[in-house]
Amino acid sequence: MRVSAVVPAAGKSSRMRGKDKIFSPVLGKPLFVWSLEAMHRCPCIDDVILVVSAELVETAIYLCRRYGMSKVNRVIAGGATRHDSVMEGLKCLSPDTHVVLIHDAARPLVSPGLLAGVVRTAFHEGAVVAAIPCKDTVKHVDGDTVVRTISRSDLRLAQTPQAFRREFFHILTQPGDVTDEAALIEAAGGRVKVIQGEEENIKVTVPVDLAIVQTLLLQRTGAK
């Protein structure tokens, strides 16, 4: 069973005050390298396709070589949106790929265990998303007025990694205004399994997230 990972890293980082978050240094390494290292420590992932902005392809190739990311067999240019970038990555899958895993490079704290968990579940269930319970009270608002309070007991906050078996690949390559690929499976009437994600698996979106990631990595690695 061949498992390939597509790692979208071509975002515009519009909320990072001019910084390209994917290449931001964290404990001496570019942010995206931490995600790739987790994949290198996950035996079930065979190869990785990294998708970056067109002008950064050569830089990303150099950095992958510098940090020994040997599972990265393709570094390609992404599209205008995240999903466009994922579709470009999907086009590069090996014909014998049985499961594809999709994980945002902006989630550098993912564990090899969670990666393996979504792959294993996709093999048995077909489509899977990692998610965590919603801890905060959720309000449905109209402008600046609360319409109703939504019960959070059945709500989950979706993360990546997500993984999909081969029979779903044709759906994943359909254009769509989506923020994650599981939504395409849902829209097509498919069943998406949910497994427990990780609280530390945060997405770097605003500058303070970089500081949080660095603090958590310091605790994890014992670095000073």
Give a brief outline of the structure.
The chain has 224 residues and is of the alpha/beta class. 30% of the residues lie in helices and 28% in strands.
How do the SSEs run, as a string of H and E? EEEHEHEHEHEEEEHHEH
Task: Look at the structure and give the CATH class.
Answer: Alpha Beta
What's the quaternary structure here? single chain
**Count, helices:** 7
Strand order in space, largest sheet: 5-4-1-6-10-7-11
Global mean pLDDT: 93
The share of residues in helices is 25-40%
Gross morphology is globular
Roughly how many Å is the radius of gyration? Answer: 17 Å
The biggest beta sheet reads: 7 strands, mixed
The number of strands is 11
User: What would CATH call the architecture?
Assistant: Alpha-Beta Complex
CATH fold field value: Spore Coat Polysaccharide Biosynthesis Protein SpsA, Chain A
Poorly predicted runs of 5 or more residues? none
Spatial gap, N to C terminus? 40 Å
Structural class: alpha/beta
